[in-house]
Every structure is written in structure tokens, then in C-alpha cells.
């Protein structure tokens, strides 16, 4: 990501946008967990241990009373060695208990908070049916096509972090509204929950779906904050673009 001065257009910072984007996406998921998870201790399911779910788990640990409200973290990845290595790492760094799952089904069935972060691109690849979710589960949708449509037909409540997500017709939840599976007024605003204007979870038995949907502008906003924080801390490396003016 290149940050430009808004008046002159002169470049003021160059940074790795992948780190910012993954961290921002993970944080969006954790904010949903803070306000929508059921009371008490929650077991967690991580499907995929790439950078997005790693960021999400770090943020989730923070919003769950620094891990006090987290029971067991059930970890599944297509690469079992990577899942085992990540599980060992968060046991040491976050002081949480982990269980590397033999299957996605086992991980989902055991969890109260389910967070997939995968690279599926079409609805035909969906693999998580409604019947795998325990009562009271919170499904945090960080990726796109993991849950089968029957989840949306039977879940109790639906939330999104931005109303504009309905307008993205190639992604959930927009495509679900287009297909008539969801009505626009069923999709509730997480921001309203945070502000106290919209009801959150009504009881610990509800199955809730939270669509954590981001836009590129979020990365630019976060990048601006990173750049300002780096200036305060004198972090990063200063680059000299011109020793002297090109035109003399």
C-alpha cells in the first residue's frame, strides 16, 4: 500500500497491505464475538490457520477477557502439520488449551464460536451443514462459501458489520437476499448492537451468523493509522526518493 499526501500526491509511506488487511479482517471477526457470543466460556473452532485466522485468534483472545472466556480451541487445517505447529504456538503465546481436530465436522460440532478462513470461491464448494452447529453457536463468516445454504434457512439471527454488504451480489449475504433465502430486514447491524440501538443475542440457545465483510477502503483507513503510529514511535525505515530536484 502506498500512502499519498492528499494535497500534493507525494508518497509519504509504503507498507505491506497484506498484513494490514489480514489483521483488520481478523479484528472484524473478533468484534462480532465480543458482542454476539453466548455467556460464559466458549470453545472455539478455527478452520484454516493462515494469516487471517491467526489475526482473528489473537483479537478473539483479547476480547474474551484475555482468554479467560475461551475453553478449548479446536484447530483444523488441510495441512495437519501446520495445524499442530500453530496449536503449539498459541498454547505458549496465548496460554489457551488446544485440540487439533481430525475433521472439520469434529471441530465444528465441538465449538461455540466457529471461524472459517478459507479460499473457497463458489457456493458449490460449501461443506458445513446446519446440523453440525450446536445450540448457542456463533458462526463468524470471515471467508465466503464455507456454510451450506441450510444454515441460513434455520439460524436464528443474522448480523453484518456494514449494511453495504447486501449490495455485493456475488457474496454472502447479498446473494442470499437475491435468492430469497434472507430478507433485508433480517440482516441486523453490528454497529447498532455496539451503540445500544439494536438487540444482540436474546438467549444462549440461539444460533447466530455474523458476516464480517470488509472493503478495501478499510485497509486504507487502517494504513493511515499505522503510518501515524509509526511516525510517533519513530518506527520503519526512511526512504529518500530524490537527493535533489530533477529539474534543478
From TrEMBL:
<dbReference type="InterPro" id="IPR003462">
    <property type="entry name" value="ODC_Mu_crystall"/>
</dbReference>
<dbReference type="Pfam" id="PF02423">
    <property type="entry name" value="OCD_Mu_crystall"/>
</dbReference>
<dbReference type="InterPro" id="IPR023401">
    <property type="entry name" value="ODC_N"/>
</dbReference>
<dbReference type="InterPro" id="IPR036291">
    <property type="entry name" value="NAD(P)-bd_dom_sf"/>
</dbReference>
<protein>
    <recommendedName>
        <fullName>Ornithine cyclodeaminase</fullName>
    </recommendedName>
</protein>
<comment type="similarity">
    <text>Belongs to the ornithine cyclodeaminase/mu-crystallin family.</text>
</comment>
Amino acid at each position: 500500500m502506498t500512502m499519498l499526501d492528499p494535497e500534493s500526491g507525494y508518497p509519504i509511506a509504503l507498507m505491506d497491505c497484506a498484513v494490514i488487511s489480514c489483521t483488520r479482517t481478523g479484528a472484524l471477526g473478533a468484534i462480532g464475538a465480543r458482542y454476539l457470543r453466548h455467556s460464559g466460556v466458549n470453545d472455539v473452532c478455527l478452520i484454516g490457520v493462515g494469516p487471517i485466522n491467526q489475526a482473528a485468534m489473537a483479537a478473539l483472545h483479547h476480547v474474551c477477557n484475555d482468554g479467560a472466556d475461551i475453553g478449548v480451541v479446536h484447530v483444523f487445517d488441510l495441512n495437519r502439520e501446520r495445524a499442530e505447529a500453530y496449536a503449539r504456538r498459541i498454547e505458549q503465546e496465548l496460554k489457551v488449551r488446544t485440540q487439533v481436530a481430525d475433521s472439520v465436522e469434529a471441530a465444528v460440532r465441538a465449538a461455540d464460536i466457529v471461524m472459517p478462513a478459507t479460499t473457497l470461491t463458489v457456493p458449490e464448494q460449501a461443506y458445513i451443514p446446519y446440523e453440525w452447529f450446536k445450540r448457542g453457536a456463533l458462526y463468524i463468516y470471515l471467508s465466503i462459501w464455507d456454510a451450506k445454504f441450510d444454515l441460513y434457512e434455520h439460524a436464528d439471527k443474522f448480523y453484518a458489520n456494514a449494511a453495504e454488504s447486501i449490495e455485493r451480489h456475488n457474496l454472502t449475504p447479498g446473494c442470499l437476499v437475491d435468492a430469497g433465502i434472507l430478507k433485508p430486514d433480517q440482516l441486523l447491524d453490528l454497529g447498532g448492537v455496539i451503540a445500544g440501538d439494536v438487540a444482540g443475542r436474546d438467549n444462549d440457545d440461539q444460533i447466530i451468523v455474523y458476516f464480517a465483510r470488509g472493503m478495501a477502503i478499510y485497509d486504507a483507513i487502517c494504513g493511515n493509522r499505522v503510518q501515524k503510529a509509526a511516525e510517533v514511535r519513530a518506527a520503519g525505515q526512511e526512504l529518500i526518493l530524490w537527493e535533489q530536484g530533477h529539474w534543478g
